[in-house]
Predict the 3D structure of the following.
Amino acid sequence: MSFEIAVTKRLGDTDIAIDLTAGAGATVLFGPSGVGKTSILNMVAGLLRPDTGRIVVGGVTLFGAGVDVPVERRRAGYVFQEARLFPHRRVRANLTYGASDGADIARVTGFLGIAPLLDRWPRSLSGGEAQRVAIGRALLSDPAFLLLDEPLTSLDRPRRDEIMQAIEHIRDVLALPILMVTHDPEEAERIGTRIVRM
Amino acid sequence: MPSAEEWGIVLLSLKVGGVAMIVTLPIAFALAWLLARVRFPGRVIVDAIVHLPLVVPPVVTGWLLLLAFGPTGPIGAPLQAWFGVSVLFRWTGAAIAAGIMALPLMVRAIRLSIEAVDRRLENAARTLGAGPWRVFWTLTLPLSIPGLLAGAVLGFARSIGEFGATITFVSNVPGETRTLPLAIYSVLQQPDGDAMALRLSAISIALSLAALVASEMLARRAGRGLHVL
C-alpha cells in the first residue's frame, strides 16, 4: 500500500482523525476548509506530531510504534498552498536546494516548462510560475511520495490546467504516490485515483 | 581641520568601537536566536539581564566590570595568572565596556530580524531534506542578515559613544582609553578647549548620524522581509 494513515490529533477545539489505506496513484482528501486536511499532510510530512496512531508510506513506518522519523529524512515532496520559494535564492538554486548531484534538472524543468525561469528571482515570478518551480523543487529532492496542499488555489483557470497536467504526468509517468488536499470537486475528480471525503 | 591628536582620538574610537562590535556580534546573535526561537525556563530572566546595561547607570556597569576584571576579580585574576594580561587602563578594556553597553541594542535589532524569518520557509527546507544546521546556515542566517547588519551598525555607534562605563572601568588615559566622548569631556575641563570640543563633537555627531541612517535603512529592509545579499 502507498499510504497507511491512522492518526488522531487535537488542535485547539478541533479533533482531527483519519483512517486511510490507499494504493498507487493519487489519493485526494476532499472536503471543506477547516476540517484538518492540511494538518494531515503536515503529520505525514513530520511537521506536526500526531497524538496517537501510525503513518506508513510505501511500507516504511514514518510514525508510530516508537518511531518518529525526522522531517528531513521522510523524503516527502511537499508542495504547499503557497509556493514558499526561498526569496534569497534564484529559481535554479531553489530547484537544486534538495537535489542530489545526479538529479536530472533538465527533465523536470522541461515537463514543467520552467527552463526559461532558472536565472530569475522568486519575487519576479507569477503565481503559476512560482507554483511550478515549487513542484519542480519538490520533485528534484528525490521524494518517495508527494504531498500537495491545494496547489491550484491561488491560480487562474489556464494556469490551473497547466499544473493539473503536470500533476497527472507525475501520477502516471513518474508513478509517484500522491496525497493531495483540495476543496474543489473538479480537481478532485480529475486528479484523484480515489477520493476520501472528509 | 582636525589636528593629528584629534585624528588619533578618532582612530582610537573607531578601533575600540570596531573591536567591541565584532567581538559582541556573535554573542548578540546567539542570544537573539535563543530569545527568539527557544522556549526555556528563565527566558524572561535572561532577557532582562541582556537588557540590564540599557537601564542600569553606566557607572554601575563600569564599576562591576572593574570588580570582575580587577587583579583579584573572578575574570581579572585568572587572566593575569594564566596569560599575564590585564585589561585595566587598556583600550581592550574600553572595548569590553563598549561591547557590554552595546549588547542590548544589538540583541534587539537582531532578534526582530530572526523573528521576521518566515518559519514556513524553514519547514519547506526541512521537507527538502535539510537538517537543522543546514536550515540555519542556508535560511535563518542569510534571511536575518539585514537585522544582523543593523545591529552591528547600531552597536558600533553605541560603542563609539560609550562614556560612563568606560571612564569608570579603564579611566581616561590619552592614547589608550581616551575615546571621543572622554576626549570631549577632558577638553571641556580646560579653559581653552571649546574649539577642540566643537570639532570632536561634530565628528561624533556625523558618525552617529551615519550609523543611525544606515541602521534604519537596513532595519526597514528586514521588516519588509527583503534580503541584502
